[in-house]
């Protein structure tokens, strides 16, 4: 396989206007370079502030292979530090989450740190008199992640010192987070019900592409949707539809449905699929909730929030949001051929319990390791990961609805089956890789 | 299955491993549920916290029907399961009802890969005209919240 490390021009050549090279998915070296560059100079979703509600609450999370620690401070702020003791590198905490009290104490030699990472104390202090400890990195306490943005309680980090600001990077797509948060009449979401975690043996980009792939449901999900349709056949339209059926049946919608739902791309790889409607548009109405929304947001804004339920909004490269049913997926790449996918559910403060039931049910049916819908997706991603190793054709086609005019535009609204949503991701990929390598050079 | 309820779990698991899924489904009571909590044994209910699976008969039927469809792509090649059970113990017994506890190891094999899970199955059985039926089969996995590959059949 080609070497890429010192050849940015070879990396750029992997992404053509209407197709991409298989090495993007297969190469371990490309994966290492993504960890170093792409995931460092973009804004990556770390977690939700409601996971650390009390001072001293922490969550550990690797981003781009670096162990991080998100901590709630005594003054209510959320800080992110590297989870690495300033002494010899022990991880300060190895639990996934917990509360550390008023300070962190390293389990190895008991150096202690304040919640913001500042050094607090160490045993046998006098042994350090006359040494350089205070002046060197190890005496400064924990290394802090400087670029942290808490946007309506969604916590993002940018690990590299260079790169776009949070607002410049995400721009208009932030409206998808606003929409989800504003579905709470009180403007507040909290993580609820735990996280469903899947290991998928495929490249992370394949998973992210599929989030924007509307041509596959008809063929990929046939077994699940046909079973659902057969079970539901012959019921009177007045029969109350169980929530699971309400959520399963739209997967069987035809090509026309997905084409007409529409899509929009933004600079830096982001997108919204289903700008007109989506498979989530026809969930049962809840009059009391809608009244509460009108009281909180006013008639017009409430209608706007509730009518907008895109299929997926992609915050490239790591987050996918479903405003309704209040679910997110987080893409955490582990290796060129291994990806961790997390599915989180939110409770909207002030909204009826049914909304939470809805998101839990959706995540269970569609994103659980025991899902009824996802088995066929996962099998096909893993199949692609193998299939691409075949000789002959080394390229992956993204030609559908390609139009050279799209190269000159940043924001484009288009039909829902246009592979532009994927081309847009790869253009951003090439840009972020190049930016990182220039910065490193 | 009219005899000793302690034989029930082994009978039920054998139906799954032999892929006699219709016979298996027939063991469930009308209001029966299959439940794999995300917090394992620590979880109190299926509503305040999510689950890997929480399915009524309608959804179980959907799964079984899907597995029979030749276009269930993920079943090419097909998955096979093996339950290795410890003897069932009766946790609770009253008129027409019994609760069983059966520690197990579950292996799901497909092509070159295998998923290995361990845990305890807890059956809530009710006496029906044809013998015992399942009101709830709860599966408390060891470390249920960890990241898992696809689990396609029934634990
Ligand atoms: S490594 Fe942390 S105190 Fe020594
Ligand atoms: Fe899919």
Describe this structure in words.
The complex is a heterodimer of chains A (441) and B (155). In chain A, 32% of the residues lie in helices and 23% in strands. Chain A is of the alpha+beta class and 441 residues long. In chain A, helix 3 packs across helix 15 and helix 11 (287-297) packs across helix 12 (299-307). The longest helix of chain A is centred in the last third of the chain and has 21 residues, at 420-440. The two termini of chain A are 23 Å apart. With 155 residues, chain B is of the alpha+beta class. In chain B, strands 1, 2, 3, 4, 5, 6 and 7 form a seven-stranded mixed beta sheet that branches. The model of chain B has no long low-confidence stretch (mean pLDDT 96). Chain A binds chain B through residues 193-201, 220, 222-224, 226-228, 230-231, 242, 244-245, 248, 340, 345, 357, 360, 363-365, 368-372, 374-376, 378-380, and chain B through 36, 38-39, 47-54, 58-59, 61-63, 65-66, 69, 71-74, 76, 145-152.
Write the layout of secondary structure elements.
The complex is a heterodimer of chains A (441) and B (155).
Chain A: H1 8-12, E1 19-21, H2 23-26, H3 28-41, E2 44-48, E3 57-63, E4 66-72, E5 78-82, E6 97-99, E7 103-105, E8 112-114, E9 119-121, E10 147-151, E11 154-158, H4 166-170, H5 175-182, E12 189-200, H6 204-211, H7 217-220, H8 222-232, H9 243-248, H10 255-261, E13 263-265, E14 271-273, H11 287-297, H12 299-307, E15 312-315, E16 319-322, E17 327-335, E18 338-348, H13 353-367, H14 374-387, E19 395-397, E20 412-414, H15 420-440
Antiparallel strand pairs in A: 1-19, 2-11, 3-4, 3-6, 4-5, 7-8, 8-9, 10-11, 12-18, 13-14, 13-20, 14-15, 15-16, 16-17, 17-18
Helix pairs in contact in A: 3-15, 11-12
Chain B: H1 8-17, H2 21-25, E1 28-37, E2 51-56, H3 57-68, E3 80-85, E4 89-94, E5 97-110, E6 113-128, E7 131-141
Parallel strand pairs in B: 1-7
Antiparallel strand pairs in B: 1-2, 3-5, 4-5, 5-6, 6-7
The structure holds FE2/S2 (inorganic) cluster and fe (ii) ion.
Fe (ii) ion (FE2) binds next to α7 of chain A.
């Amino acid at each position: 396989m080609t070497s890429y490390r010192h050849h940015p021009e070879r990396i750029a050549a992997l992404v053509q206007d209407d197709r991409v090279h298989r090495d993007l998915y297969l190469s371990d070296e490309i994966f290492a370079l993504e960890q170093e560059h792409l995931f460092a100079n973009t804004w990556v979703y770390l977690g939700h502030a409601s996971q650390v509600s009390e001072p001293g609450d922490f969550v550990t999370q690797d981003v781009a292979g670096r162990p991080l620690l998100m901590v709630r401070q005594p003054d209510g702020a959320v800080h992110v530090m590297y989870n690495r003791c300033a002494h010899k590198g022990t991880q300060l905490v190895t639990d996934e989450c917990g509360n550390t009290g008023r300070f962190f104490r390293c389990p190895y030699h008991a150096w202690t740190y304040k919640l913001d990472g500042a050094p607090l104390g160490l045993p046998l202090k006098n042994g350090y008199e006359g040494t350089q400890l205070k002046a060197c990195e190890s005496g400064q306490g924990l290394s802090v992640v400087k670029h942290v943005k808490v946007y309506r309680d969604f916590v993002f980090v940018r690990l590299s010192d260079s790169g776009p600001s949070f607002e410049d990077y995400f721009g208009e797509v932030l409206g998808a987070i606003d929409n989800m948060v504003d579905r709470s009449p009180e403007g507040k979401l909290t993580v609820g019900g735990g996280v469903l975690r899947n290991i998928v043996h495929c490249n992370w980009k394949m998973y992210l592409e599929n989030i924007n792939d509307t041509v596959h449901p008809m063929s990929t999900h046939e077994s699940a949707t046909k079973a659902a349709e057969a079970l539901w056949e012959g019921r009177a339209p007045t029969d109350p539809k169980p929530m699971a059926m309400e959520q399963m049946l739209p997967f069987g919608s035809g090509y026309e449905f997905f084409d007409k739902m529409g899509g929009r791309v933004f600079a830096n790889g982001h997108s919204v699929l289903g700008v007109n409607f989506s498979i989530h548009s026809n969930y049962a109405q809840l009059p009391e909730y809608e009244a509460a929304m009108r009281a909180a947001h006013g008639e017009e804004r409430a209608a706007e929030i509730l009518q907008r339920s895109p299929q997926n909004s992609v915050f490239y490269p790591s987050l996918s949001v479903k405003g309704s049913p209040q679910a997110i997926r987080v893409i955490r790449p582990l290796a060129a051929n291994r990806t961790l996918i997390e599915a989180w559910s939110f409770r909207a403060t002030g909204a009826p319990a049914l909304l939470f039931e809805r998101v839990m049910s959706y995540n269970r049916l569609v994103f659980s390791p025991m899902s009824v819908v996802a088995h066929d997706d996962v099998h096909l991603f893993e199949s692609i990961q193998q299939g691409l190793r075949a000789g002959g054709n080394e390229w992956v086609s993204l030609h559908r609805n390609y139009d050279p005019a799209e190269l000159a535009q940043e924001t484009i609204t288009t039909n829902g089956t246009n592979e532009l949503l994927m081309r847009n991701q790869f253009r951003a990929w090439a840009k972020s890789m190049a930016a990182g390598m220039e910065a490193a050079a | 299955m009219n005899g000793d309820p302690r034989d029930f779990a082994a009978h039920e698991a054998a139906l799954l491993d032999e892929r006699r899924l219709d016979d298996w489904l027939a063991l469930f009571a009308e209001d029966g549920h299959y439940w794999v909590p995300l917090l394992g044994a620590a979880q109190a209910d299926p509503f305040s916290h999510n689950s890997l699976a929480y399915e009524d008969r309608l959804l179980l039927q959907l799964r079984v029907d899907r597995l029979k469809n030749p276009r269930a792509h993920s079943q090419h090649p097909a998955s096979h399961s093996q339950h290795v059970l410890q003897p069932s113990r009766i946790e609770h017994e009253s008129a027409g009802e019994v609760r069983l506890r059966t520690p197990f190891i579950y292996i799901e094999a497909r092509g070159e890969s295998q998923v290995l899970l361990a845990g305890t199955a807890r059956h809530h059985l009710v006496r029906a005209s044809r013998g015992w039926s399942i009101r709830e089969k709860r599966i408390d996995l060891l470390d249920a919240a960890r990241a898992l590959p696809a689990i396609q059949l029934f634990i």
